Q: What sequence folds into this?
């Protein structure tokens, strides 16, 4: 640090000394020591430049092109890693969907979700299969994780699905392992609500809710969700039961359609 602080002073002193020597030589008419006089200054300047360049290299100063190249490589690798993870996730979902399709004898077809209804964004999905693929109204839509909803409107090559959480959704379900039946309704929010469970029924948070098949729409035994909250209201005969859907309904990308 001392050298860097005193560097300008040392150079100025050297220049003044050499200037005085050259002036003296010119007055004497001598010039044979000119190169010799300038040589020490050139050495000092070269040494000074080498030190500064060395410090810049250590600190990465002046390597903008190299830094930019490394940064671009890092961004490219991060992008490729993200794409690879997305492909792996998609492959995993499709394998599970194919397994579900092959395991069930009531499978009509598998379909891809291509849109959400802009007027009811969180409650209606559109799939790329329709009448021409054997789909009809009120068929159940499921994934490997659980029930998604039911077919509502069907067209030639597409159809829409009402999710479990829609206010028009009602599913006959059964709590496992107690075997208590109820109706699972949507209220337009993230979770569903189980109605008509008597307060003398022994139910617990975390218990599984499956379809009972009593509504004639959903086949029996499909995983629907899990109990997350139980509330007893004064003057009521039934528990107020909140159920979280087993399938994240905001992340549905493919479904399997089951016949009634």
A:
């Amino acid at each position: 640090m001392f050298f860097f602080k005193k560097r300008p002073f040392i150079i100025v002193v050297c220049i003044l000394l050499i200037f005085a020597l050259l002036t003296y030589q010119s007055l004497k008419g001598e010039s044979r020591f000119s190169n010799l006089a300038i040589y020490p200054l050139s050495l000092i300047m070269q040494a000074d430049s080498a030190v500064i360049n060395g410090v810049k290299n250590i600190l990465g100063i002046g390597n903008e092109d190299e830094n930019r190249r490394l940064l671009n490589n890092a961004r490219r690798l991060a992008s490729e890693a993200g794409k690879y993870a997305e492909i792996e996730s998609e492959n995993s979902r499709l394998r599970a969907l194919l397994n579900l399709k092959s395991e069930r004898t009531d499978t009509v077809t598998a379909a891809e979700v291509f849109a959400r209804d802009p007027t009811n964004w969180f409650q209606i999905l559109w799939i790329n299969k329709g009448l021409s693929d054997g789909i009809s109204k009120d068929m159940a839509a499921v994934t490997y994780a659980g029930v998604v909803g039911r077919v509502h409107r069907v067209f030639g090559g597409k159809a829409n699905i009402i999710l479990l959480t829609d206010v028009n959704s009602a599913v006959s379900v059964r709590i496992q392992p107690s075997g208590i039946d109820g109706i699972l309704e949507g209220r337009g929010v993230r979770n569903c609500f189980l109605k008509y469970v008597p307060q003398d029924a022994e139910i617990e948070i975390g218990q599984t809710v499956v379809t009972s098949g009593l509504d004639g729409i959903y086949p029996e035994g499909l995983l629907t969700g899990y109990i997350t909250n139980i509330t007893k209201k004064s003057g009521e005969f039934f528990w107020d039961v909140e159920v979280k859907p087993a399938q994240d309904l905001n992340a549905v990308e493919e479904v399997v359609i089951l016949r009634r």
